[in-house]
Write a structure and sequence with these properties.
alpha+beta, Aminopeptidase, Alpha-Beta Plaits, 2 domains, 9-stranded mixed beta sheet, 5-stranded antiparallel beta sheet, allantoate deiminase activity, transmembrane helix, manganese, EC 3.5.3.9, purine metabolism
Length: 500
C-alpha cells in the first residue's frame, strides 16, 4: 500500500484549520452580537412585545379583549345599575350609587390596584409604581348620573382608566411606573340630589366647605346623613383631611364623551380639550299682580309672565349678538367680545309660575339662566348687561324683579405640556389601532362642566373628548361606538406608557 502523500495531508490540514478558524470567528461574532442584544431581547420578551405575542391570548399592541370587549361589557353592566326601573338614575349615595361603587372597586382590584372608599364616597384605585413617594398622576371621572341618563357620561372615563391599568398589569408593567397612578371614581359631579355640583372632586381639591355637609335634598336628608346611611361617618374634621396636598400630585387627566357634534362632523373618535368654559347660574324672580284672566283689562295688568318672556327673548339676543350690546368703554375690550362670539352660550332651562292655572294671571314667575363662556371677563359683562336691562324692563312693566347668583365657576385652561402629551398619545393610539396616520387630532373647547374644573384648583389638568353619536348626552340616546371606546382606552394606555 502506498504511503500517504505528505503534500495531500498538509493541504487537508490547512483546509480544516482554515474552516475551523472561520467558524470560530463567526461563532465569536455571533456570540458577541447576541450578548449585545440579549438585554433588549430579555426586556422585549418579558413584556411580550418583541414578537407581538399575547398574554393569555391578548395581542400586546392592541389589547382588544381588555380595552374593547371587556370595557364595553362593563359599561353596559354599569348602565343597568339604577335606582329606577325604566331609566338610568344614579345620584349621590343612593343604593344604586353604592352598588356601582362596589362594582368599580372590584374592577379596580382586578386591574391590580389597591382600593378604598373615602369619606365623600369617592372610590379610589392606586398603583404605587417604582417610587411611591413621587408625585401621583390622578385619572378620573364621575359615577353619578342625571335622571334618565345615558351609559357613557362619567362612566366612560372611569372604565377607560381601569382598562388601561389592567393592560399594564397583564404585561407585568404596572409596578414599573415611574410615579404612582391613581384612578378615582368621583361620587358626585352632576349635583342632581343636593343641587351642589362637584361634591366628590371638590372635596379632593380642598374646595368643599364643611357647611356642605348640612346641605339637604328635597326629602330633608343632609349630605352627612346620606353618607351615614351608607356607613360612612363624615365629620368636619375628616372632610378637611380628604384634601390632597398639591405637592403630592403631578397632574389630573379626564376622558369624557364630547357631548357635542364636532368630532362626529370631522370623522375622528378623539379630540383634545383646550379648556372648559366658565359658568354662572342665575335664578330670576318676577313678581306682579295676580288676577282673574277674564276680568283684568290688558292695559291694567302687571303680568310677570309677559315680563319674564320679554327678558328671556332679550337674553337670547344679547348672547347671539354680544358685540351689539356690549360697549367698548374699557370694561369689555374688543378682544373679549371677539372671544365671546366663539364660546358664549346662554340658556333658560327651567321656568315656573304661581299659581300656575290657565285662567289666572300669575302672581310670580321664576326662571333659571345658565351663562357659559371661555372668557370670564366677557361672561361677567354679559351678566351685568342682562341684569341692568332686566331692572329697566321690570320698572317699565311695573313688576318686581330679583336676580340671585346660584353658581359660579371660572373658566379652566388645560395645561399646555400635559395637553401636548395627551394629543401625541391620542395620535399614536389611533395609528396603532388603524395602522394609518389619522392626521391632526382636533382641539376643542368644553362648554360642559367636568370634575377637571374642581381639580384644576389642585393641580394641572388635561382632558380628552370621545366622539358620541349625534352629540347627544344626558339622554338614553347617548351612544359611543365600541371602536371609539377602544380608541379612548388605547389613548390612556399610550399616555401611561410614557411613565414607564
Amino acid at each position: 500500500m502506498a504511503a500517504p502523500s505528505l503534500h495531500s495531508s498538509n493541504t487537508t490540514t490547512q483546509t480544516s484549520f482554515s474552516i475551523s478558524h472561520a467558524m470560530t470567528k463567526n461563532f465569536v461574532s455571533i456570540l458577541c452580537f447576541f450578548l449585545v442584544l440579549y438585554p433588549f431581547f430579555a426586556m422585549a420578551t418579558s413584556a411580550n412585545i418583541f414578537f407581538g405575542e399575547n398574554v393569555e391570548g391578548m395581542k400586546y399592541d392592541l389589547f382588544p379583549e381588555i380595552l374593547k370587549e371587556e370595557a364595553v361589557a362593563r359599561l353596559n353592566e354599569l348602565g343597568k345599575v339604577s335606582d329606577a326601573n325604566d331609566y338610568l338614575e344614579r345620584t349621590f349615595q343612593s343604593p344604586a350609587s353604592i352598588r356601582a361603587g362596589n362594582l368599580l372597586r372590584a374592577w379596580m382590584e382586578d386591574a391590580g390596584l389597591k382600593t378604598w372608599v373615602d369619606q365623600m364616597g369617592n372610590v379610589h384605585g392606586r398603583a404605587e409604581g417604582i417610587n411611591p413617594s413621587e408625585k401621583a398622576l390622578l385619572i378620573g371621572s364621575h359615577l353619578d348620573t342625571v335622571i334618565d341618563a345615558g351609559y357613557f357620561d362619567g362612566s366612560l372615563g372611569i372604565i377607560c382608566a381601569i382598562s388601561a391599568m389592567k393592560a399594564l398589569n397583564a404585561t407585568g408593567r404596572l409596578d414599573k411606573l415611574r410615579r404612582p397612578v391613581e384612578v378615582i371614581a368621583f361620587s358626585d359631579e352632576e349635583g342632581v340630589r343636593f343641587q351642589s355640583t362637584f361634591l366628590g372632586s371638590a372635596a379632593i381639591a380642598g374646595l368643599l366647605p364643611v357647611s356642605a355637609l348640612q346641605i339637604h335634598d328635597k326629602n330633608g336628608v343632609t349630605v352627612q346623613g346620606a353618607l351615614r346611611a351608607s356607613s360612612i361617618e363624615t365629620t368636619e374634621e375628616n372632610l378637611l383631611q380628604l384634601k390632597y396636598e398639591p405637592e403630592s400630585v403631578w397632574g389630573y387627566v379626564e376622558v369624557h364623551i364630547e357631548q357635542g357634534p364636532v368630532l362626529e362632523n370631522v370623522g375622528l373618535p378623539l379630540g383634545l380639550v383646550k379648556g372648559i368654559a366658565g359658568q354662572t347660574r342665575l335664578k330670576v324672580t318676577v313678581r306682579g299682580t295676580q288676577g282673574h284672566a277674564g276680568t283684568v283689562p290688558m292695559n291694567m295688568r302687571q303680568d310677570p309672565m309677559v315680563a319674564a318672556a320679554e327678558l328671556i327673548v332679550f337674553l337670547e339676543s344679547l348672547c347671539k349678538q354680544p358685540d351689539y350690546y356690549l360697549s367698548y368703554d374699557g370694561q369689555c375690550a374688543s378682544s373679549t367680545v371677539e372671544s365671546l362670539a366663539g364660546s358664549l352660550v346662554c340658556t333658560v332651562g327651567e321656568i315656573s309660575s304661581w299659581p300656575s292655572a290657565s285662567n289666572v294671571i300669575p302672581g310670580q314667575v321664576t326662571f333659571t339662566v345658565d351663562v357659559r363662556a371661555m372668557d370670564d371677563t366677557g361672561r361677567e359683562a354679559i351678566i351685568y348687561e342682562f341684569s341692568n336691562r332686566l331692572y329697566h324692563m321690570c320698572d317699565r312693566r311695573s313688576v318686581f324683579c330679583n336676580v340671585e347668583r346660584k353658581h359660579d365657576a371660572n373658566a379652566v385652561v388645560c395645561d399646555p405640556d400635559l395637553s401636548t402629551e395627551l394629543k401625541s398619545a391620542s395620535h399614536a393610539a389611533l395609528k396603532r389601532i388603524t395602522g394609518e396616520d389619522p392626521g391632526d387630532v382636533p382641539v376643542l373647547m368644553s362648554g360642559a362642566g367636568h370634575d377637571a374644573m374642581a381639580m384644576s384648583h389642585l393641580t394641572k389638568v388635561g382632558m380628552l373628548f370621545v366622539r358620541c353619536r349625534g352629540g347627544i348626552s344626558h339622554s338614553p340616546a347617548e351612544h359611543v361606538l365600541d371602536d371609539d371606546i377602544w380608541s379612548a382606552g388605547m389613548a390612556v394606555l399610550t399616555f401611561l406608557e410614557t411613565l414607564l
